[in-house]
Amino acid sequence: MREEGEDADAQNPAQLMQGISDVNVLIAEPDGKFASDEAKAALLQSIIGPLNERPGLSLRLINKSLQRSRKGSLSDQIEASIGNGRKWLEKEKCDLLMWGEVSLEDQAVRWYFLSAVEGEANLGMPAKLENLLVPFDPEKATLDVLYAAIFAATSPHHSTQALKIGEYLLGAVDPLTKLSSGLTSRKTSPAAKTSAMGMCAVVLANVARRAQELGWFDPAVKAFDTWESLVDKDKTPIEWALVKNHQGWLYDEMTNHEDDDQALEHIEKAIAIFEEVCTVLNEKQHPLEWASVQMRIAGTCSKIGRKMNDSDYLQKAARYYKKSMNIYTQAAYPLNWADAMSRMAKTMMLHGQMMKGAQSLEQAGVAFQAVLKVYTEEKYPALWASTQNNLGATLFALAKRDPSTPQWINHALICFDGARRYYEETGKTQMVHVIDKNISKAQDLKDQIEEELASDLLN
User: Which residues contact 85 (CB under 8 A, 6 or more apart)?
Assistant: First the structure.
């Protein structure tokens, strides 16, 4: 990472991006009214022209617009748009689609990013609505931020590529010192300036997650602090929530580093931020996004509970998983429901093993059995086998604690056998080896229980 005070202008920051795989970007015409076709063409050229001159990018225009509905949750609003966008990307063989909406109030276009490949390379969560407000006549600093965002949204997760993106961003606009002065009030509205600052924070969070050095989190944290000093939550609540969610995610990610000596403090900070996000992405107005954040909080609590051997965090995780199922019901969202239920069951299983008590294990067993109503062997064989294995482990743990209930060990062996059959048929030899060990231990326990029962009957 560039040391503080080092002269970043000693080289052209854009040269850092050479060597990263070239990114082919498809630009859709932004949805909205323009003064004229000439004005629209000039606006698009103000982005496409300068960015095409930079290393690693190839941008081209598609004479179509993506429109989004204004009804339902955020996910509902863009579902059809995203489907069409992915078809365009596949047909045009591009890596990223930028599509947007005209904001006359800000004399700008709010550009959204859609990567051809779904996954963690996307800029955020809810992933499809990450955006940057770009003025009709953008200044260089805004284009610098847009340039970095394109790579952050599409580049593979190799740490060296992430570091290049981070070094470029700090060298080109340095959101901690130079960005505000590089955007003039005459050409860039306060909303666009805030958006650029927020995207810098998001990109640096993306870089910090991919990098191997805890030190990269420091500029990301500072960038979020700077953004927060500019943002007006009441005026742009959704944009605030999207960026704020990344801030929580950043603190969560810090704890993955072994040298993070403030892990508990960072986890609590992450949870508090996610709870703030839920004041905007709330259960009533944005149910799917709210449920997704509940899952994120649950995962955060579960991770720290495992890492710190803390049963309280495991219980807290289970509560958040359960809250998400207020929206992810079995009837409406069966796969989301099964995922949440399965994660809750694993958390309760670990809690029961940690506390050496039967109640959490029994709850885990009931939950795993419920999940099998969705993860059937015919439709989802891999998930079915994993759940059978987890259910077997739960029942085995219960049997060890209470040998007077032999049906638990019998059921555990049936579960292990079913999972083993799938892993053997699919060539997962390592899993077969693990399950064989569990079957051997479970069979020994069954034999012991039966011997003790026979002895009691004789006496």
Answer: 28, 66, 97, 99, 114
E strand or H helix at 28: strand 23-28
Contact 13, 148 (CB under 8 A): no
Listed by start position, the domains of the chain span 10-281, 294-373, 375-459
- Which residues are paired to 100 by β-bridges? 111
Beta carbons of 288 and 327 less than 8 angstroms apart: yes
> What pLDDT score does 8 carry?
41
Neighbour-count burial of 87, counting CB atoms closer than 10 A to its CB (0-12 exposed, 13-18 middle, 19+ buried): exposed
pLDDT at 433 over 90: yes
Model pTM greater than 0.70? Answer: yes
Please check whether residue 154 is in contact with residue 115, taking contact to mean a CB–CB distance below 8 angstroms.
yes
Band of residue 74 on the pLDDT scale cut at 50, 70, 90: confident
CA-closest candidate to residue 344, choices 359, 326, 329, 324: 324
Confidence of residue 458 (pLDDT cuts 50, 70, 90): low
Helix (H) or strand (E) holding 434: helix 429-458
**Is it the case that residue 161 has pLDDT exceeding 50?**
yes
CA 273 from chain centre, in angstroms, equals: 15
**Residues near 32 by beta carbon (within 8 Å), at least 6 away in sequence:** 101, 102, 103, 104, 109
Q: What are phi and psi of 99, to 5 degrees?
A: -130, 150
Q: What is the pLDDT of residue 176?
A: 82
